[in-house]
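Case study 2.
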Amino acid sequence: MLVNSPQVSIIMGTYNRAHLIGETLDSILDQTLENWECLIIDDESSDNTIEILRPYLLKDSRIKLHKRSKNHKKGLSGCRNQGLELAKGDYIIFFDDDDIVHPQNLEVCVYEFSNRDVYYCCYGRNTFVGDFHYNFDYSKEYGYYYMDISYVEKILKYEFLLNSCSVMWRKECFVNDVFNEHLMYAEDWELYSRILSSGIKGISIEKCLFFGRKHPKSNTGEFYRNNPIRRLSKAEAILLAVENLKEKQLLSKSLKRYFVTESLKYAEYNLFARILSKFELLTLEKMKWQIFYKTLPLRLFIFKIIKNHK
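Prediction:
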């Protein structure tokens, strides 16, 4: 086992997950590919997470615990960026501290990297609530397709779900791009779209290799309960995405329409006006978008009535 030169660096930020992180680590220890390191970055947990981790640290030297450095902001983004600085593997993958990993996850992704000239490998992700039922599909037969810059728009519009834990990356993808540590939600959505907008190619395999646990104390759960910190972060992530696309001349009319429509959900942050300023439009075109935005609630209401009637 090449502990000192791992193929894969698993990066896991954790905070007060004593009741769940053990099951996640058990699923990592069950990986069919053994050449990995798991870097756990603790974000000042106040429960007994550290006590739960001690037996794992003693049992397997591939699992390493670090306290979040003061050089990084509190939050998942800061923890992951610290993990990127410490990572020794050729490939990077981010796992959350409350989920379950398919035993073949690392093996399948590394196999694809060794056989194809791609920079990332994504795969299927299912969700579960409560107890997890360990009934894995161990088949090595699956379909796949290549992904290019055209998927940036699909990812941003959630037409293709590229979750934080559903993709493995070549380490060089993070030389110029890392997580924005000011974001407390949608940080992966913003970063991954930024990386893909550089034009790198990847592959998507049609096999579920990760299982996300749904519970109210997750960042996503808090967002859907209208937590103001998570909502503000999503608004800021949208603005950052617009800036990146504008800079790379990838801001299509379809994406402009999508972002303007989304901004209606974040009116308290004046997001529409901030987005419009990033578009850098001539006066007439700016007026068209202002009219589009002002009439949007009525049009959405009428669309909803027609849809329900059908």
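The mean pLDDT is 94.
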